[in-house]
Amino acid sequence: MRRRLGRRYLDVLASIYIYNEHRGYTAIDRVLSAVRARAPDDLVLIAAIERHRADERKHYVMFRRWFERRGVMPLALDRTFGHIDRFVEIMFRTPISRMDIQAIIADDALFARLCRVISLTERRGYRQLDSLLSNRTVRADRILARIFEVIRKDEPSHWAPYEQWLQRYAQPRSDWWGRAVDSFVHAELLFLKLPILFLNPFVSRRVDWLDADQSANGAEAQQLSASAS
Predict the structure, then answer these.
(1) What residues contact residue 209 under an 8 Å CB cut-off, 6+ apart?
(2) Which residues contact 60 (CB under 8 A, 6 or more apart)?
(3) Is 2-228 a CATH 1.10.1220 domain?
């Protein structure tokens, strides 16, 4: 029974992570495109965002390979379980898919808000990894533990470019409202949504991969997942 519950916990946890990693790099694609258009000469910022995007994609592929090794698909989750989805919806009053990224990039105040959202989300994820890596069930799965170790190593570079932009233009790195929303979204996911998902045996699994439309090939998956082996 304990082993079965442990497998269920890891299944739920990895399903949430793979959704969020995919949401992360696909959302960054839009931000990156807009930043390149607005500030094509800001090569340092562009390179940092490109690295952030590449890391999120790498993390997604590592989780995909973890599921492939187990011979199952992730649980079919939607934006209900996305931290950045919920955060953006509260802060911008619109889903990520409907955000006018061009308008946000063109407005310093809105871009500063977006930078704070990304920075707070990345810092929240970094802190959460300490808890996961001390979890006995997670540590028992050597490959999954290694994936989280890789993510923990990558995370600090993810919030850096956004906080540097805020500092450069004399914008505060965060505000009380942003921190409050971040804490609320995290608590809602951890103490409400995750337990409900864990206890619900009727949640179906995906029938295709989140990146199916990107035609990710097996060679890429093998190469990127080597970091977790």
Answers:
(1) 64, 73, 216
(2) 18, 21, 22, 24, 25, 210, 211
(3) no
- pLDDT tens readout for residues 81-128: 999 999 999 999 999 989 999 899 889 899 999 999 999 999 999 999
CB 169 within 8 A of CB 108: yes
Between CA 106 and CA 204 the distance in angstroms is 41
Per the listing, tokens 């995750």 go with 194
- Nearest to 19, CA basis, from 77, 97, 66: 77
Phi/psi of residue 206, nearest 5 degrees: -65, 150
Reading phi first (left if > 0) and then psi (alpha if -120 to 50, else beta), residue 67 is in: alpha
Give the DSSP H or E segment for 25. helix 2-38
Taking a C-beta distance cutoff of 8 angstroms, is the pair 95, 89 a contact? yes
* 49: its two tokens: 């965002």
Provide the CA 161 distance to its chain's centre, in angstroms.
Answer: 16
Length of the chain: 229
Domains in the chain: boundaries? 2-228
Task: With H, G, I as helix, E, B as strand and everything else as coil, classify residue 75.
Answer: strand
CA distance 145 to 11: 13
pLDDT single digits (tens) 139-190: 999 999 999 999 999 999 999 999 988 888 766 655 889 999 999 999 999 9
- 87 neighbors 125 (Cβ within 8 angstroms): no
